[in-house]
Amino acid sequence: MRNREAYLQRRKQLKELSKLAKARIETDCEGMTVNEVLVNEFYTSKEHQEFNTLFEWNNKGYKVKKGSQSFCVWGSPKLRNSDKEAEKNNSEEDDTEFYPLCYLFSNAQVEKR
Hints:
By secondary structure, this protein is α+β, with helices and mostly antiparallel strands. 46% of the residues lie in helices and 16% in strands. The protein has a three-stranded antiparallel sheet with strand order 1-4-3. The protein is globular.
């Protein structure tokens, strides 16, 4: 149950950051997606320049350092199994509930294999 609570907390934090990202899109980041604004405006720094998933880093010949904390963005939306499930979800959750979390790691969090 502890993992579920941590997941929900990270999801809540990402929702708050996404609100800020949407505001940035409206003011001066037109044409960018929420994820692009999150990475470019909030996560990128002198230390953290390139972001990839664990799978992508592995394919490039890197491994993520033990204990590294991922950066969260929204994943591709999942398809619902049935209309009844869709109705149930619409009444209980907002539209972002159908977007899973996607975990990214930066160049500062990986090392060559």
